[in-house]
Amino acid sequence: MLRTISPQDMQEMERAFLDGTGYPSLLLMEHAAQAVTDELQRRVPQGSVVLFVCGGGNNGGDGCAAARLWMQRGGRAEVWMLRGPSQMKGDAGINATLLNACGASLNVLYGEAPEIPEGCAAVVDALFGTGLDRAIDGAALFAVRRINESGLPVVAVDIPSGIDGATGQVLGEAVSADVTVTFHRPKHGHLLYPGRSYTGKLVVADIGILPEWDGAQGIDVPEADDVRVLLPRREANSYKGTYGHVLTVAGSEGMAGAALLCARAALRSGAGLVTAACPLPVLQTLQTGECCAMAEVVSDGAAIDAGAEEALARLARHKSALAIGPGLGRREETWLGIRALVESDIPKVVDADALFLLARYGGKPGASTVLTPHPGEMARLCGVRAEEILSSPVEYAQQLAADTGACVLLKGATTVIACGEDLAMNLTGCSGMATGGSGDALTGIIAGLMAQGLTPWDAARAGAYYHGLAGERAEAELGARAMTAADLIRHLRIE
Fold first, then answer.
1. Angle (nearest 5°) at CA 164 between 215 and 59
2. CB within 10 Å: which end of the chain, N or C, has fewer?
């Protein structure tokens, strides 16, 4: 499993390792430079001209060392620097001086950057590292613009310059890299948007820090093997009751598709039985669209209303998990009908209109709950603007999880999952999933996994992973514009 680390924790852990072992810091920088040079060599022919753009700190020191190693491997290094070698301190200063002694072409920038040297095959961005906390300006800004305008392959050292390593936010303007070589562990900013879109391919290089010195917390990034072990074994001597019974509470007049997608996804995720509670106008769509699900009418009107509370309570008895919210509508009468279920301790997923109603009318979700808001729904639940959620998704997911006691899955291109002290990010998915009904499918998938005995934390992580993977498969077959949520469910494989 990948695990991120914050820039601050990385700095503290690196310092503790160096102080505790006596390991030379200069050697760490050399290992970092070797990793950058190795990646460069995979991308451009040996002997090529490469432009190294180096800042005045340790990131620039990594770049200077990489330029020297590139020359030693037979390449030619053109170097732009924000400071001359004599102005740089510590390990960075040593590497800048060594580079100068090797006869590299050095150009210290004082204002507008020159044109990219003719014949360059690639650019190495070593201006600023993960600790940057301000917008880039001056000569560095001109250099960033030259890099982005060059059209050349860009290799970023540690993180693209201009990206906040902790949040992934763009600090003014930033380098857009084709590949980023980071060290020891990914940083949060590599995986959170918009930083993820500037990072390109992420390469995580070992620079020699011993694992026993790495006790820093981080955010888990589950991969295929990590989620596979969460799944219950399917025994030959089993029957439909072995794998749980999901009750979906979804749909209203004009939104029958949401109920259908939710029920179908719960079945496809492996639940043994699914019963769909719905108002009368949804019944025909459910029964004809998903013949493997049972259906129960709980309201004769256009939507579930307060009069459905008793029927829903009866249906929920002995159910393994609930999926509440897709396409329900936003009337107060609907909230009165579903509130008892939302506040019950039955394992459940609360999504879509149920989240809107929860935010508007108050209440606290019961135990064993997964909340699955998108940023707009999250903003309502937290009482802030959506822009604030997008700028600090991890912090807001943690806050809502702490406030409600629920497992919070904040949907997005990078999904953030918070449950108590635990944090995870999900990286699977694609732009083709930006279509109506994708969230309804996720709700059904997570509920189906909970019905099979997964905890909210495990079901949320596994559900997000397989949901995104199914989207990728659908997009590969049909293209991003043509795929629908029904195609996503058709490509769902949980195994």
1. 75
2. C
